[in-house]
Structure formats: C-alpha cells, structure tokens
Amino acid sequence: MKDNTTENKEVGKQEQDKILRKLLENKEEIAHFVDKFFKYRIKAKDIERYNGKFVTSYGFKVRESDIIYKIKNTEIYIIIEHQSTVDYRMPKRMSEYCICLIDSRQTSKSKFYRAPLIFPIVLSTSKTIWDAPLTILQEEDNNYGFPALNYPTYNLVDIQKITTKELLEDRMGLTLAMALEKQKTKEELEEVIEFVIKRGVNEYEANCLKIILENSSKIRKALGEEIGKYKKIMEGDGDMSNFEELYVELLEDKYNKGLDQGISQGISQGISKGAEQIIKQMIKNKMEDKEIIKITNISRKELKRLKLEVEESKIA
Predict the structure, then answer these.
(1) Most distant CA atoms of the chain, gap in Å
(2) Chain segment 239-295, per-residue pLDDT in tens
(3) 229: Cα within 13 Å, side-chain hemisphere
(4) Could you tell me the residue ranges of all domains in the chain?
C-alpha cells in the first residue's frame, strides 16, 4: 500500500512539472530564459520545438527529455530538463539525451558528418542546493596514463542559488513560477504574489499567474480560501480595470483577519508596522477616511500622521 505522504509528494511533483512544462512550451519564455541565465541572445521567432522522443539504435530504448528546441535553419539544439529533486544520475541521463539526439540527426554515413551543437540545461527547483556532478566523473587513480574522455557537461540553473528579488526583476511566467517555488511559508508566498499584483500585470503575466494558482497544490494548500481573492484579481482575460478595487478588497480582508487574530490589541497600544503598511496602502488607493477608520479602528490623529507620511514619501 502506498504511503499517503509519498503519494502527496508525487502529486505535488506532477503538478509542479505541469506548471513549468506549460511555461517552457512558450518560445518567448525560452528565449528570455536562455538570455537571462546564460547571456545567449536568441529571438523567439528563430526557434522551434523539436520532437523529444528518440528510439536508440542500440536496444530500441526510448529516451525522452522534457523540452527540446531547435534554432531554425541550423543544427543547434537546446535541451531543458526540469528536476524538482537532486538526481545524481543526471550526468548519465543527459549524456544519453545528447547521444540520442546526435543519433536521430545522423542521416549521412559520410566521414565528413558533423554532429549537431547541443546546449543541455537542467532547471532545478529542488528544496536543497543541487550538488550532483555536471558531467560523468572518471577514475583518476591508476589510469596508466590513459587520457580522460570528454563527456557532455550540462548547464545548471538552481533556484536555491538565485534570490527572489533577482527572479522578480523579470516579468515572465517562468521566473515567477521559480520565485513562488522558492518560498517556504504562507507569508512568503503572499508577499510575492501581492508584490507582483501591486506592481501591475499585463495580460500575459495575469494568465501565467492564473496557471500557477490553478495548478499548484503547494499554493492552494498554503493559502486556502484566500487564493480565491488572488484568482479574482486575475480574472477577466487580463482586464485590469477593476484592479484597484479588488486589491483594496484583498487588503481589507487580510486586515480584518489580522484584527481577529489580535492586531486590535496592538492598535490600542500603538499601530504595528504591518498594520501601518496596510493602512498606508488604503490611503494610496484613495479610500475615504471614514472607511479606513471603520475597517481598522484607527484614531483620526494616527490616520492624519500616516497620511502625512504618505504625502512626504511622494515628494521624496
């Protein structure tokens, strides 16, 4: 009988794979991804998907990589393999992918045949730092002077070595998914989602965020019913005309929950930093004073002070 914990982890992995696969199938995402992490500038219009299934000529085994792209009118290929856990077999697996790809492209028996140029990438969203070797390791002792073989070396993108700030500098779905996967607590997830929403999203970003919210069991489990608020903001085929109203509604809801959990006590003793930020956001969204006072129970004197700080920040 399968352990529930193991089964849940497997379901979570499949959902994460589904999210990233959807995003990796977008040529704009791939072009941006390769430029951001490896500084190779390619245009989305210049690449095309390539069949990732190979039947080897030795043993008829099928090998399948996550995503393979081909630069049009060339023999240049990009292999992207997503891993949610560290896989110490990856050097061998990636070597197999490269050999299978070479084998699938060798149509000539001429001695002048040139193998395709392959750029293999592993995208790691593991909770731990990727410490698997980047190529097949060879015996170094007692090698009798035999030269080492040059096995393929894959290129690594490890989210544990990239800051959330760096990932959120982009306005792409793939880096957003990576940023959310990196967060460990409900509060961290909320902070990232609200940052993205508040800075403003275009239609493409809104659709990417909807895909992530709808398919991530990790986010659904962490945010519970609150996820409905975020999805509501993303609805309307990218129409952000009601964004401010919905965002304020989200802040009100979060603030009221905070009051129920004891923030009211903190207000009577002096407004907490978290409460200040929420009230300042309400001021920026031009909510009426009476509404802010009704929702937060703040005094008029404290509200006046915060409004002055908001105005001063605009001048600065």
Answers:
(1) 86
(2) 444 444 555 555 555 555 554 444 444 444 445 555 677 788 788 888 888 888 877
(3) 19
(4) 4-163, 242-315
Instruction: Examine the pLDDT at 116 and tell me if it is beyond 60.
Output: yes
Q: How many CA atoms lie within 13 A of 131 on its CB side?
A: 3
Q: What's CA 175's distance to the chain center, in Å?
A: 4
Q: How far is CA 153 from the centre of its chain?
A: 24
pLDDT by residue (tens digit) across 196-214?
Answer: 877 777 778 878 888 888 8
d(CA 61, CA 167): 38
Question: Who contacts 1 (Cβ-Cβ below 8 Å, separation ≥6)?
Answer: none
Report the DSSP beta bridge partners of residue 120.
79
Question: Cα torsion for 163, 184, 154, 140, to the nearest 10°?
Answer: 100
173-182 and 203-215 helices cross at what angle (nearest 10)? 40
